[in-house]
Fold:
Amino acid sequence: MNSPNNGSRNRLLAVLSHADRDLLAPRLEVIELDPRQILEVPSDPIGHVYFVESGLVSVVGTTQPDHRIEVGMVGYEGMTGLCIVLGDLLSGGLGGLLGGAAAGSVLSGGLGNLIKEFQDSGHGHAADSWVGTGPNKEIAPNDLADALGSDTLDTLSQRTGMAQNDLLEALRHQLPGFVDQLTPHGRIPTEEEASRMV
Structure:
């Protein structure tokens, strides 16, 4: 997809059309983050979304009460708070969970439902690679649209203010990594594992 070249160093913002970027502009603000600054806390509502322009943001999971492990990173190609967008996508209550609730059964069930939608639409090979421990397979925007369905895309487009083509382009790059981060063991997490992730 051609970028409208709107001047942002963040690749998600760079692919937005000028009209979509204009919708976000009043709420965008350039800030400097401190090293080790905590941007999101499990069970707390997400207050801000960060479109990283330089550096990296670590995604940290907890495996035991005091043991933390880096499970992913976000750079200039992405954003934090992606679960705000994916909340509707991972239906079955996961949206509430990722927006601040905490229930491992919702995460494992919602993610399982999402993977099943991809399998049922003939795109299970891509979704299975995101869950597995090997490389993530890409998915074309049309295939992603087919797997998600028009109702889900309409809802996501309305909530984000993004045109569906821009939304699909962003999701096809972000969704594989997001699913990968939620499945560090190469499978849908159990309820107990999922409750420690969020």
About this structure: Residues 45 and 99 are 5 Å apart (CA to CA). The longest strand covers residues 57-64. The chain has a mean pLDDT of 74. The chain has two domains: 11-74, 82-197.
